[in-house]
Design brief:
It is built from 4 helices and no strands. α1 (3-18) runs antiparallel to α2 (22-39) and α3 packs across α4 (71-83). It has helices spanning 3-18, 22-39, 44-54, 71-83. By secondary structure, it is an all-alpha fold. The protein has one domain (3-83).
């Protein structure tokens, strides 16, 4: 789920690791921990669609029996993404 939001940074993490730069890969991973936390505070589809919406990307509403993220959940997610370096418009 997080890959929809931070795919470029995950690709960099993997590239650095396989290039032998484990220290840089670890730094990227630790920097992304707030994103992982935010994306899984509630059910992953709910937060993924909320994050995509925040980024101005199509995601649409969730399907029943799930419900879209509440304003409080979106506010917390926004903080978590920002703490992980995700630039939101």
């Amino acid at each position: 789920m997080a890959g929809h939001v931070i795919g470029d940074r995950l690709a960099e993490l993997i590239d650095r690791y396989f290039a032998g730069d484990v220290a840089r890969a670890r730094t990227i991973h630790y920097g992304l921990l707030p994103v992982y936390t935010g994306m899984f505070r509630t059910q992953g589809v709910i937060t993924t669609k909320a994050a995509l919406s925040m980024l101005g990307l199509p995601g649409g509403p969730v399907r029943l029996p799930l419900a879209d993220a509440t304003e409080a959940e979106r506010a917390q997610l926004r903080e978590d993404l920002a703490a992980g370096g995700v630039k939101l418009p």
